[in-house]
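Revision sheet: structure tokens.
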Amino acid sequence: MDSFKKEKIVNLERKIIAISSKYGRKIVYLVNEETNLTHGKLCEKLDLSVSGLNAIMNKMIAQGIIIKEQKGKNVFYSLTNEVRSLILLAQKEQIQTQLNRSFKNEKIVNLERKINAISSKYGRKIVYLVNEETNLTHGKLCEKLDISASGLNAIMKKMIVQGIIVKEQKGKNVFYSLTNEVQSLIFLDQKEQIQTQLNRSFQMKKDTFKVIYINMLQNCVEHPYATYLLKDIDFTMSYFSVSELIMLLFISGIYTYSEIGSFPSLFHISEKTAISTQKYLTNKFKNFLFEVVQLDNENSIKKL
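Predicted:
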């Protein structure tokens, strides 16, 4: 896929999320998957009020994402041709990415099987040492593994035949290195492991903050905004960043400054930054209330 098409897909996603981070993607998915989808059916599937869905769909029509068609008393929705073609392109790209990942994972698994089949005791250790250390001679490898020269020789011959190891003679010394393909597979596997660990670590931190934040809000349940933030906590956590959630406690009036000081002093920011931050978060919070509670932004939400 060329960069121009990728950019169009990214821009489409941004538009959809900007219109409604909670319902936008769901609406596009349902309209794409089901033909003859009426306004009423869509409300039922999303558990959304008629007026709430209407407000979102008007924005989507204005942005060229959705087409509205009136047939008698019913209103039907479909995606514009451009959006439909971009979704198809994105789906093809995702399938190709999954196939590539599956193919690479299969190659890693096959490599591990080969190594274990050659030597279940020494195979992995040899590959690890050869990958980690440059200019590793036959003698040094024997020492590190506590194996005889002839015993290592028998294993290395099999690894060379299987395309795992490359042997190079320099004078009296024999040096070993991994083939380019094996090096790239090990690098890919290490990247996957690191990413998995990072994701797990991030999720643990996020889960810890979630528990703390729930406790903070539950101590203030008499405040309506605390109740709204708790109503769908997973959506709340995805809608706001950690710093935004802390700031909202004060901007919304759930927590008071009292002796703590003012907003700028509390968060160590300038007056100018504080004004723009409060304005931005107030508008974002109003949009959040509109999506979660389906309140009218202007009339039903009291002034923050």
